[in-house]
Amino acid sequence: MRKNKDRSVLSDSISFHIETLGCPKNKVDSRKMRSALLRSGFREAGKLEKADFLFINSCSFIREAQEETIQTVFDALKIKEKRKKDLKVGLIGCFVERFSDAVKKDIPELDFTLGTQRYHEVPFLLSEKFNIELKNHSADSRWTFSPDQDAKHAYAWFRIAQGCDRHCAFCIIPKIRGKLLTYDQANLEKQWADEKVLRGDRPIREVILVSQDTISQGVENLEKIIAFYSQKEEVHWIRLQYLFPDKRMLDLLDLWTKYPKLVSYLDIPFQHVAPDILKAMKRPTDVSLFDEIIHKARQVRPAMEIRTSFILGFPTETHEHVDAIKQAIKAWRIDKLALFRYSHEVGTYAGDQYQETVTDEEKIRRINDVREAHLEIRKEFLTGLLGTREKMFVDEIHKGEVILRREQDAPEIDEIVTAHCLKPWFSVGDLVETEITSFSEYALTGNIIAKR
């Protein structure tokens, strides 16, 4: 590391690596931190072994996420102990926000910890703690660097709000992320400008809008956001994620008739369908509203596909409740489904007020039972896709193999379509006409229609 005459270390001689755990919202936060570090003169290491600082952007939403965070920290500390003693390891984000005292007590080997919502401050905190002189770029200078791993893709996530005002019984997010804070136009414009710099000359073809609770920003505000990204000529698709099933959804769905760049995809976690379990979860209990939302979604866009999620094993759940979920999946013809094992978390309402009534083994059995019911619907749906043609998004090209996506599939979450093309005439981010030729449970194979 290079030092100045006052013996402080200069930031342009320090390299960093960011390891991101958890959901796409964390990816947005990591990129905010990365942008701040690069603007302050730090260099990005091509790989962990060459980094001076390692930042682990953590997740603590459920037990499995906590275990992954802990394992990632211990793996990093082993690298520091055995191979790179001068490596500085920092733990950032949700896990620290939730377990701050335990982290300081139980993992003293960490060099640096920071909670949520301060990602942009990381360079200044490092400067103060480690006597680093920041080589800041002037506001009008051209700061350039190679695009990061995410920038090789033609899609990008944009956070449109922070925090949540809901109080779902199983969820710790409001305590970690705080109250709902919607982002204004200036914030959106800055995110767009930063993302453009991060990816150099690579265009953004798909915009994915994320927050803890997207519908709570209101339909009027969401329309302004959608209009902002719709005006970007390079953008093909706009995708909304994490929509909460309240009555405003019925008005929001009208926007699909007004903005053609909105994809035919509805991501709306219901979490359960039994009114008594939903009440215990502190979720909406009017299941007829769920039905109305699904019906209108397919009315405004006949090609609309529904992604939802259910939590299995919540306290007092019975086999009859599980049967109700299976019946709803069949009645609604749910296209995409995520199933989660209930995690009894201290600090949540359910974790503090309820006793567990379902064993982990039984939760897994129930998940498998619901999954089997859904696979029957999936098979019918996928069979119906055989021979159909549509324009698909090119995600990756690898020596003759092309990874594509239908607009009804979110990146890194839903299905992909694999095709072969020895001499591609297209680039990542292009839309190419493709015919579905075969399928497995969660993947498709296609044939790219030759350009005439």
Structural overview:
- This protein has three domains: 125 residues, 3-Layer(aba) Sandwich (Rossmann fold); 236 residues, tm_1862 like domain (pyruvate-formate lyase- activating enzyme, Alpha-Beta Horseshoe), CATH 3.80.30; 60 residues, OB fold (Dihydrolipoamide Acetyltransferase, E2P), CATH 2.40.50.
- The longest helix has 26 residues.
- Helix content is 36%, strand content 21%.
- The strands form six sheets. A five-stranded parallel β-sheet has the order 3-2-4-5-6, sandwiched between helices. Strands 16-17-18-20-19 form a five-stranded mixed barrel. A three-stranded parallel β-sheet has the order 8-11-12.
- The chain is globular.
- The chain is an alpha/beta fold and 452 residues long.
- It contains 15 helices and 20 strands.
- Helix 13 runs parallel beside helix 15.
List keywords for this structure.
452 residues; alpha/beta; Rossmann fold; pyruvate-formate lyase- activating enzyme; OB fold (Dihydrolipoamide Acetyltransferase, E2P); 3 domains; 5-stranded parallel sheet; 5-stranded mixed β-barrel; 15 helices; 20 strands
